[in-house]
């Protein structure tokens, strides 16, 4: 009554079940981007100009700070007398 019932011709399950692999989605072709030497030169010149402007701003800021310290020192000495 509680004995299992086996099929007459048992077939073992496959060790590696066969699955159909999904095909990879089709890729759209990537547009070709061509970089000319003129564009590279323009980017390099722009970078040099921006770096020079940043350096000029930094030098100006330092010189203004030094001038402010010198003027403050001179004015403080003048008011002490």
Largest β-sheet summary: none
What structural class is derived from the secondary structure elements? mainly alpha
* Residues in β-strands, percent: under 5%
Shape: elongated
Number of strands: 0
Any overview of this molecule?
The structure is a single chain. With about 80 residues, this protein is an all-alpha fold. It is built from one helix and no strands. The chain has one helix spanning about 35-80. The radius of gyration is 40 Å and the shape is elongated. The relative contact order is 0.04. The mean pLDDT is about 85.
Secondary structure: elements and pairs:
Elements: H1 37-80
Short description:
The radius of gyration is 40 Å and the shape is elongated. It is mostly helical and 81 residues long. It is built from one helix and no strands.
Throw out a few tags for this protein:
54% helix, 81 residues, 0% strand, elongated, mainly alpha, 1 helix
